[in-house]
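Slide 14.
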Amino acid sequence: MEKVLVLIPAYNEGTRIAAVVKRVQGVVPDYDILVVNDGSSDNTAEEAAVAGARVVSHPFNMGYGVAIQTGYKYAHAEGYDFIAQIDGDGQHDPVYIPRLLEPVIKGKTDFAIGSRFLEVDSYEPSLARRIGMAFFRKIVSYITSTRITDSTSGYQAFSRDVIRFFTTEVFPCDYPDADMLITLHLAGFRIMELPVRMYSNVEGKSMHSGLKPFYYIFKMLLSIFVTLLRKRNSIGR
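Slide 15: predicted structure.
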C-alpha cells in the first residue's frame, strides 16, 4: 500500500489549523498528516497536535519555502511515496486530495497542480493578484510548453522522485511558485493540472501569499531569471 503524507505548512493559524486537519482526516483518514509550524507566535502547534497531526516546528519564522522544504525532507527521511500539499489557512478544500493524487499514484504524471481556474469557481482574487497570476501563467506556459492556468497554486500532489528532488539545493526556497514549475520542467518531470475548488474569502493573510503583489512579481521574475541561467545539467534529476 502506498505511503502518503498530507503536508500542511502553517504560520499563526491557531484558530483554523484544527479544522483543516479534521477536514483532511474526514477525506483521507488513512493518510498521515504533517503540520510544519513555521515559528508561529500563537498555539498553532498545540492545536494541530491535539487534532491528530504530526507536528514539526521551526524555532522562528523562516518563510513558506523553507517550511514546505522541511516537510519534503521529513517525507523523504520517513520513506513516504507521495505527498499531497495544502495550505493551512483553509482556502483549499481537502475533498480534492484524492483527485490530485490519483494520476500521480498511477504514474500518469510526476507533479499535479490543483487549479482554481480550470472550471467555474467562486475564487475571486484581488485585481493585483489577478494581474500577477495572469502574467506568470503566460511565462510558465511558454517556458514549459504546457498550458498552466494556476502557476501560484499551493495545492499539489507529487511522487517520491519529486520529493527527493525537492530536498536538494535546486529547490527555490525563497519563492517556490512559478520558478518551481520551471525547475521541474527543466529536470524532466511531468506536470499536470486538475480542477479544484478554493476559497478566496478566508480571513487573515495566507502564508502562501505573504508578499505584496507587485513586490512579489518583481522577486519572482528575478528568481525565474536565475533559474533559467542555470545549465540543464545542474538541475537534472
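Speaker note: The chain has one domain: 4-234.
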